[in-house]
Amino acid sequence: MEQARTLKLNYKRTFLIGFAFFGILLLWQVYDSWCPTFLTDIFARRMYGMSSAVLKGSGEPEKILNVQWIVGIIMACDNLAALILLPIFGRLSDKTKTPIGKRMPYILTGTLVSAIAFPFIPLFFHYNNVVGMVIMMGIVLIFMMMYRNPAVSLMPDITPKPLRAKANGIINIMGYLGGAFATVLGIFLKLSDYINAADEARKVWTIELPFLIASVLMVISAFVLFFTVKENKLAVEMKDELEEGEKLAAIETPVDDNKPMSKANKRMLLAILGAEFLWFMADNAVGTYIGNFVIYHLNSASSSTMLLTIIGGVASVAGFAIAGAIADKIGRKWTISTGLALTVGAYLIMLFVRPNAVADGADTAAFPVLLYVVWVLKGFGMALVHNCSFPMVVELCSSKKIGKFTGYYYTASMAAQTVTPVLLGFILTKSSLWGILPAYAGVLVLVSFLVFTLLVKNIKAHKVENAKGLEALGDND
């Protein structure tokens, strides 16, 4: 029987690296929760001469659906830029050498510029300036792409391969804490209150504060990362552990930078990326349109979306917390397949969600409780998927190409997020049925499940023992 080998996952350091992901998900939660509704409202004014709230109460709710294709195109243009830029910044950071490391210059520059531009998005919206708003959205996205790939690459840079699933769980939990900050803001600063108010009653601070607070917290998280994680020093200290991790990797054939990628590893990579493309198409479709689904289809308050996000986030944190342990038992493949199966079930349940009637004297309808069940299942399931999929991709490369392979991972996800807002926006416009949303997402996740389960092999990493107790905190900070 093979003797277990000890590799040490430094929880404290992994938690600190997670501040990079904290900033990323904080920004994206605010961006995805507010911007599609901003776009819906501003284009309703351009096309019909009235706000989306007036249109909703005019007896012609289909006009709200008629602007979704424009919303989809703009959201997709942002993702198209990301599709191009993420691989570029990944490769550049692989080759960068500076006194503060190869990833940190991109993280600091991207964060600072994004943080400055971000609060201008709601400001331009408030003053009905669509050109300024879209330009600010573009600037934020470009510089967040400078930040995102290097920030995500930082974890595998200094984490041995067999420990990356557990480390990725910690990183993602930190990210979800960032998203939770944004969600709590949305509960107290209701976007629906702003949208449903008459123009003269709209208060800019209702929509400006979430963006300002997100910018401040992003900058703080980047500086925490900068002052606590010394890239160059850690690269030297971790050299032996990283080499041991290469020997224990869960791949069919060993990675050799001096030879072309083996056919087996290439098949594995393409199958993972293909399945990832499909599940991100589903996930981004729901993330992009759920705010409008709640406000314009369910006639509920936008704060309900935020509570929904919190409940899904708690389920996601639970998934991230145990995904690494599950993968150790059954392998990363079956962990991901289980998560996809749960998500298919969630969207099947969502097909039965119907809007409640608006009570006399009320502005909004009660929120359907069944949707909370959907978000618990989806949140837990997709946490299992996201926790294990990225480590599987960077398992297939050496430490010299982590940024490049992180670029492959994000190319698949951003390609999906480029296609899906436009495609679903077009379908919603033509069908005039909000019920298309769960059907669209459910079919895509089902196909993703079939692709992944049938084409990806389950290769379990060699058995390792993680460091226990105080030893796990490490002494190499």
Write the layout of secondary structure elements.
Blueprint: E1 5-7, H1 11-48, H2 52-56, H3 62-66, H4 68-95, H5 104-117, H6 120-126, H7 130-157, H8 164-188, H9 191-196, H10 204-228, H11 231-237, H12 239-247, H13 263-297, H14 302-330, H15 332-350, H16 370-394, H17 402-431, H18 436-455, E2 464-466
Parallel strand pairs: 1-2
Helix pairs in contact: 1-4, 1-7, 1-8, 1-10, 1-13, 4-7, 4-17, 5-7, 5-10, 6-7, 6-10, 7-17, 8-14, 8-16, 13-17, 13-18, 14-15, 14-16, 15-16, 15-18
Tell me which CATH architecture applies here.
Answer: Up-down Bundle
Portion in beta strands: under 5%
Strand order of the largest sheet: 1-2
Query: Tally of extended strands?
Result: 2
User: What gap, in angstroms, lies between the N and C termini?
Assistant: 35 Å
What does the main sheet amount to? 2 strands, parallel
Order of helices and strands: EHHHHHHHHHHHHHHHHHHE
Total domains, how many?
A: 1
The whole-angstrom Rg is 22 Å
Could you describe the 3D structure shown?
With 477 residues, this protein is mainly alpha-helical. It has a single domain, classed as Growth Hormone, Chain: A (Up-down Bundle), CATH 1.20.1250. It contains 18 helices and two strands. The chain has helices at 11-48, 52-56, 62-66, 68-95, 104-117, 120-126, 130-157, 164-188, 191-196, 204-228, 231-237, 239-247, 263-297, 302-330, 332-350, 370-394, 402-431, 436-455, and strands at residues 5-7, 464-466. It has a two-stranded parallel ribbon. Helix 1 runs antiparallel to helix 10 (204-228), helix 8 (164-188) runs antiparallel to helix 16 and helix 14 packs antiparallel against helix 15 (332-350). The longest helix is centred in the first third of the chain and has 38 residues, at 11-48. The radius of gyration is 22 Å and the shape is globular. Residues 463-477 have low confidence and may be disordered.
